[in-house]
Amino acid sequence: MRRAVLFATGLFLALGCQRKAAPPPASPAAPVELRLVAVGDIMMHQDVKASAQDAPGGFPDLWRDLAPLFQKADLVFGNLETPVAPRSGGPGRPFLFNAPEVLVPALKQSGFHILATANNHAYDQGPKGLVETLERLRQQGLHALGSGMSRAEADSPCILERNGLRIGFLGATDVFNSRLNRQESGPWVSALDEDRLVETVRRLRPQVDALVLSLHWGNEYQHQPSQRQREIASRLVEAGADLILGHHPHVLQPLAWVEAGGRKGAVAYSLGNFISNQDRTYDPGSMPEQAGDSRDSVALMATWVKDGAGARLAEVKVEALWTENNWRKRSGDREIRVVRIGQQANSLARLRQQRIQATLDGRLHTDTFRMAAFRPKPRPKRRLAPVTVEAEPVAEPSVAVPPPPEPQP
Predict the structure, then answer these.
(1) pTM value?
(2) Which domain holds residue 274?
(3) Distance separating alpha carbons of residues 2 and 58, to the nearest angstrom
(4) Among 398, 321, 401, which residue's Cα sits nearest to residue 356?
(5) For the chain, how many structural domains are there in total?
């Protein structure tokens, strides 16, 4: 009997221990990543449009070398430095751009997701042109950054979620050719108001895991940011920005880590031209290196990692790009295309990569080259026939300076 009681008591205690035992600790969540690829100015000079017309695949052929890079990214950003307003605007001409309607589905087909529309060419085709551009982007599911159908929309963040990370984007321009903001209830392009933007960043930061700013700022054709830009960048990083993507100078500027207020962020002061017809006359055999600077660019690749400790910008790297341009042949089809020059083994690629690295490191300060000394005779203008590009769905898953160059045909 005593043995039975002892057995029953032991069984009760054993069962009781099982009921009260704490569950095993949960396995820490596996880290997740978000990859952003950002490129610079998408310029619609006449010869860029002619090159797209001559290319079998249209606009996507002009940057087809970037397709593998874009496909590996969760998000792709570019600065759309043109209206797309064939219905409400006029033909593009020097300094007043307009793009054919096929550009927007081509950008979608190529893998772009976010396009900065706050820049000095936003109003090239007037308020109606801005509205048409925004409508066309929306029809393709592309996100416009820094402009909107109202001031509230233009100033609002774009917040997207990828791989369990929430990433916020804000856009603004410090430069206007025509500042046509009228009524806050109408079409609007967000201006870079430093204090207002800092406060917006502070409010947005707790709502997102990552925060990116697109700023159209700086002085054209200068390889160094101004002191004001550096101060603005520092304030925005302190307020909560992880990454600042700059554009407008049409040449590269330094890429730097900025530390402020106990935070650290990456600032690309200028990503340069992604594609354009600038510096088309450059001949590496007879001209100084800086005569080709507007054809240098980079694809910036930023990676955020989120784990049990939170989200952080873990890596920023770049790949050197170069715009090939057959202008000097002066006959046949126009061919302008962006290439990844790190994949090429020739003297021009080595020369441009060295210059790109020097620019990103902040080692280029003074250029005395004058484009006027090499001003060529203009090519005959071409009449462009309508072209079409079929859009395909994309699965969503990296100082003394020269004066502005001559107007681009």
Answers:
(1) 0.84
(2) 32-374
(3) 93
(4) 321
(5) 1
